[in-house]
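Recap from last week: sequence in, structure out.
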Amino acid sequence: QVQLVESGGGLVQAGGSLRLSCVASGSIFSRRAMGWYRQAPGKQRELVATITNSGVTNYADSVKGRFTISKDNVNTVNLQMNSLKPDDTAVYYCNAQYPSRNYWGKGTLVTVSS
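Predicted structure tokens:
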């Protein structure tokens, strides 16, 4: 069983920075990628950034140039968020992709005040 635990959320002023971390436990066999998604109040969950096992990254247009996804090791993925905007306010979820299914963390709240 795969478990994902996020940390690093909080309250920050517009223009500030936060760093989110996600630690995965369980099998890494056949895992294809890890990433971050977010869900704002009243909106659908959306992609923020992903990183494959080989290090290929993908970003939503809305965060390109401001957010950076990285891996400390095979089981830890980070999201460095700079120049935060009030529109970035959301619950951020860690995701792990496997051929048969996706796994999700419980989420961490990021609130950006104007």
